[in-house]
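Our preliminary data section would be incomplete without showing what the modeling component actually yields. Below, a chain of 194 amino acids is followed by its predicted structure, encoded as tokens that our downstream tools consume directly.
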Amino acid sequence: MYNRHEKGPQHLTADSMIKTPRLLLSKWDDRHREAFAAMHADPDVMLDLGGPIDQSECYQKFERYRAAQREHGISRWAIEKSNGTFVGYAGVMPRLSKDHPLGAHFEVGWRLVRAAWGYGYATESAKAALHHAIRDVGVGEIISYTSPVNRRSQAVMARLNLLRDPSRDFTLQTPTGQQWQGMVWVVPRELWAG
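Predicted structure:
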């Protein structure tokens, strides 16, 4: 499943971690649980989704990420700095429910703790996760989406050279009960599959 001889911008270690020049993307384990919950309780971090989610929903999300890694070999990865500090997550998530407005799909996404904003970590980690999902796992089409107000994520999408596809925009209800508009971008596979 993993090509350890790949000459990409990161190196996948034997214990299934992706290393970038400044970050380590690792599989989820219990040491990440509390930092993950704190990140999802931060109103600034969760503003684009209508505000913080409660601890129960947060832990369900954490377990969904762990299950996706076990079952599909891809998911959001826990992002840590070289000193072990948790800074958030990034990765390609299998969204296999046909109930989603876009149907079953793979979505690249990220979320970082407030203290990690503005350092390029989202772009660096998302790029590594895309490389892994496309070249090592063989995922076909990957999309990304964010809300109209999330200019930071839109800037990351631009730095990743994603292509805007307004024909796929959608609306859904958030865990906080609000309507959320998703603006869709597509990963141009030819940029990553070479």
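Residues 11-192 form a domain with the Aminopeptidase fold (CATH 3.40.630.30). The radius of gyration is 16 Å. Preliminary results of this kind motivate Aim 1 of the renewal.
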